[in-house]
Design goal:
- Helices cover about 85% and strands about 0% of the residues.
- It starts with a helix and ends in an 8-residue tail after the last helix.
- By secondary structure, it is mainly α.
- The radius of gyration is 27 Å and the shape is elongated.
Length: about 100
């Protein structure tokens, strides 16, 4: 969940909600109150969603035993090191047996 994108999307949804509510009720006061309630509900939903993602990640980490965590860390370290390459070797000509 990328927060700035969420806030822009939420603002767009609230504007659309406010326009539709004003069209249906014709009242600025009713539109403002209902839009404020909608904004609070969207924020609560976003907060619950973030908490769920954090809980899920913590649960997955707890499932890994200490030996599995060490192995996972070792594999990640090896992948990072294998992804590195020397810039000096990139332009070096290859040797040919001729």
């Amino acid at each position: 969940m990328f927060a700035p994108r969420f806030f822009v999307s939420m603002l767009g949804a609230l504007v659309a909600f406010a326009i539709a509510t004003y069209y249906l009720t014709g009242s600025f006061a009713s539109t403002a109150v209902q839009t404020l309630i909608c904004a609070v509900l969207i924020q609560v939903g976003y907060f619950v969603g973030v908490l769920f993602l954090i809980w899920k990640e913590a649960r997955d980490r707890r499932k890994l035993s200490p030996t599995k965590q060490a192995a996972a860390t070792e594999v990640a370290t090896e992948e990072k090191q294998s992804a590195r390459f020397s810039l000096r070797r990139v332009g070096r000509p290859r040797h040919f047996n001729s």
